[in-house]
């Protein structure tokens, strides 16, 4: 399979390492942004004036907007140019981060977080599709995805580390100010490093406006329903109405897609078993492993009284484990196949999560957590790389943007739903508790959430079996990536 989409300017070999480094950096930016706010939430609540009921929307506004706009962002990358959508996403990140840092009231901060989510919806599929179209399917792409995945998987936990350190040293606004030069700098570098997009309108493909509108509105309402359901109650009028409207609009969307000549989401993509299975895997993965930073933070701060800075430092161990797993994932997928690699990594994550659940205690120590946290983070990092390698296998170059959007939708919706469900499980029965009773109940709740995560991991292991087995082929030495790329591994 060619390493670049037909009609696009092929990057010179000497620039491939720089391109991959920039894409990995962008992946790290939006992964950090997802998790950096968790440690800062207590400071944000008192500094901006959120209530206990509205504070969750600092996280949920990002998730709802991200999940709602992902299909639009993915197809826009295919039709209007991946570099254009990449830079647009970074621009939205920089502007909304500045607005968030300057916010003086809850509404402004929630709107800023929603715009960050929209930026992520354009950035995520553009970044992933740039990786998958720049590097040929197979060992070369696996190694590139290992670097990209290393930046993303580690960024989620690194965000918790930075959130603690920055909040402790400079206050909650610093976590948003930090994004401005990072996103702005990456945007400027993109014009110098990433090759120009093909002229717009090449090939006569048209933008599916009805599909874009119905997909965005329907997806946004669906994610809102799933995020708000545990808080409002699944039978509350708001949830029932938004769920019904979401189902109707999405039904209209799929009808449009089945009849249109240039659909936003070609339904034929779901005949690719790897893509459909990979989307389910990313959904459940983010609903389990993706929620871990929240529960790490809850356990460190609410049970053991860690400061924001100390909590951030405590995240160094899982950050290192995820990074090692990410960088190993590409090599393991090349040697053993993505299906076998995923299954083995999930087994490792399962063992680590069980060990972590047993070590959670109101009177436990950090050292008791080390074996479980290290093992599960190694598995988590390996899974993150391998699941995207599996999901994008066999997808045509001109569809890589929307395929990336589909897989990323599974990731983002899974994160929102999983966190909401696990938080509801962990907080069950805590009403009216204070002081020592609340601390003990919080520890018990974290442990219960970990056992629920174990069930989710077992479910992913069963889903992974649906990936196609790789075709038998003679063993071959893994090729080196062109020029500077191999040295970036």
Automatic annotation (TrEMBL):
Pfam families: MFS_1. The keyword Hydrolase does not apply. GO terms for biological process: response to antibiotic. One of its GO terms (molecular function) is transmembrane transporter activity. Keywords: Antibiotic resistance, Cell membrane, Membrane, Transmembrane, Transmembrane helix, Transport. It is found in: Cell membrane. Residues 19-473 form the Major facilitator superfamily (MFS) profile domain. The keyword Cell membrane applies. One of its GO terms (cellular component) is plasma membrane. It is a multi-pass membrane protein. The chain crosses the membrane at residues 55-73, 85-104, 110-133, 145-166, 172-195, 207-227, 239-256, 277-300, 312-329, 341-360, 366-390, 402-426, 446-465. This is MFS transporter. It comes from Kitasatospora phosalacinea.
């Amino acid at each position: 399979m060619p390493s670049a989409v037909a009609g696009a300017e092929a990057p010179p070999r000497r620039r491939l390492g720089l391109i991959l480094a920039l894409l990995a950096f962008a992946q790290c930016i939006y992964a950090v942004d997802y998790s950096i706010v968790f440690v800062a939430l207590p400071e944000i609540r008192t500094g901006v004036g959120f209530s206990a009921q509205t504070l969750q929307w600092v996280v949920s506004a990002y998730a709802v907007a991200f999940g709602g706009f992902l299909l639009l962002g993915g197809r826009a990358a295919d039709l209007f140019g991946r570099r254009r959508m990449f830079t647009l996403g970074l621009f939205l990140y920089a502007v909304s981060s500045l607005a968030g840092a300057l916010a003086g009231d809850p509404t402004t901060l929630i709107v800023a977080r929603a715009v960050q989510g929209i930026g992520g919806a354009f950035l995520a599929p553009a970044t992933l599709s740039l990786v998958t179209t720049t590097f040929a399917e197979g060992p070369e792409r696996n190694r590139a995805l290992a670097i990209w995945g290393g930046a993303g998987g580690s960024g989620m936990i690194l965000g918790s580390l930075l959130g603690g350190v920055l909040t402790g040293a400079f206050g909650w606004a610093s976590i948003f100010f930090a994004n401005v030069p990072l996103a702005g700098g990456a945007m400027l570098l993109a014009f110098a490093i990433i090759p120009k997009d093909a002229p717009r309108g090449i090939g006569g493909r048209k933008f599916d406006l009805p599909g874009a509108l119905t997909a965005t509105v329907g997806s946004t309402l669906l994610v809102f329903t799933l995020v708000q359901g545990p808080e409002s109650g699944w039978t509350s009028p708001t949830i029932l109405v938004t769920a019904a409207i979401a189902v109707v609009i999405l039904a209209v969307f799929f009808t449009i897609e089945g009849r249109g000549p240039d659909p936003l989401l070609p339904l034929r993509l779901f005949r690719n078993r790897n893509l459909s299975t990979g989307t389910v895997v990313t959904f459940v993965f983010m609903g389990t492993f993706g929620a871990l930073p929240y529960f790490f933070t809850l356990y460190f701060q609410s049970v053991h009284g860690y400061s924001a800075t100390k909590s951030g430092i405590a995240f160094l161990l899982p950050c290192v484990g995820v990074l090692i797993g990410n960088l190993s994932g590409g090599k393991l997928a090349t040697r053993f196949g993505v299906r076998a690699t995923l299954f083995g990594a999930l087994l490792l994550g399962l063992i680590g999560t069980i060990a972590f659940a047993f070590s959670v205690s109101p009177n436990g120590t950090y050292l008791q957590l080390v074996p479980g946290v290290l093992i599960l983070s190694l598995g988590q990092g390996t899974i993150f790389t391998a699941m995207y390698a599996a999901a994008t296998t066999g997808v045509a170059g001109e569809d890589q943007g929307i395929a990336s959007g589909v897989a990323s939708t599974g990731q983002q919706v899974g994160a929102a739903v999983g966190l909401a469900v696990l938080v509801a499980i962990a907080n069950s029965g805590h009403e009216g508790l204070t002081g020592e009773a609340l601390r003990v109940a919080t520890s018990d709740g974290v442990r219960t959430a970990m056992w629920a995560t174990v069930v989710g991991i077992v479910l992913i292991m069963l889903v992974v079996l649906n990936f196609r087995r790789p075709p038998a082929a003679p063993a071959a030495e893994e090729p080196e990536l062109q020029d500077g790329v191999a040295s970036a591994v």
